[in-house]
Amino acid sequence: MHPSSILGEASNFQFVWAQNEMKNAIVVCATPNWLAPAAVTLLSCAQQGAEKFADLLIVCPNPGSDEQAKLKDFNAHHNFNIKLLDVEPSELQSIESGRLGVGALLRLKLDQFLSHQFDRVLYLDSDVIALAPIEKLFQMDMKGMPFAAVESIAMLPLLNRKAKAHLRSINLDLTQPYFNSGVILFDWQATLKAKILPRCLDILKSRDSWKYHDQDTLNMVSNGQWKMLDHKWNVTKKTADYLNITPVFRHFNGTAKPWNSKPRLGFAQYHKYYVESLHETPWQSFMDQPQKPWSLKDNWRAFIRKLSFRKISKLRKHISLVAENP
To answer: What is the pTM of this model?
Structure first.
């Protein structure tokens, strides 16, 4: 199954990629209602120099002509080029995907949606933005691993008393680290050769219910065989709450997002970035979304985490030990 069209390009998929000189890609998967933040994700990458060394792609299931036109206008407004891959994910529709929907499962079919000629493919969730140059990520030694990611501090027993039970439930060795799947750098040839994504999809279909869906299956298939990245490459909500890390990629996982009309504690600068990025584009009204009812609780938790000095000390010690013994 291949993309049926690529916005602004020839409709023949093989022809388009045969003419493509880029050896790398940065890809975001998003349903049509998430195209606005997905476009901002790739805009932030372009502003950090990504257009020089990577194609910028959004994989989207069945975007309407209206959304395609909005992306075209967004490209023109910012004078750069995001390619839209219009895909048909019928195989995924029958799989339970939780609150995140089918968009969260699209990354498990990237081997069918993307060219097999790429050297490296950087996958980003559509609630991630780049805040510093990212070219070094594509130049790093992968140490023979098929992909690289950042350990999830949310799945550390020192922060999450349910972590061990969850890891056991998906048959993971408790001595192996568990990564967050919001930022993944694939050695694309090694990933294709090992058939990692099809294996994940098979596992996903084997159960009716998952807590973290694609993230769990990626961790199961890799079973510790992945390169660990420094936390600056995926600063998640809890990472930012507990630790003072200057991010390369800031990941707004969780329910609170910087495009809510009343942003979460610490989100003011990011809210401003989304406002400025979408201003005078067809997606300007995207920023009018109201704050969720539970954001007050989320703000309180963020405040408490910043004062959890014992946990912060343990977390810093863990991260330093992992850095010394990757």
So the answer is: 0.90
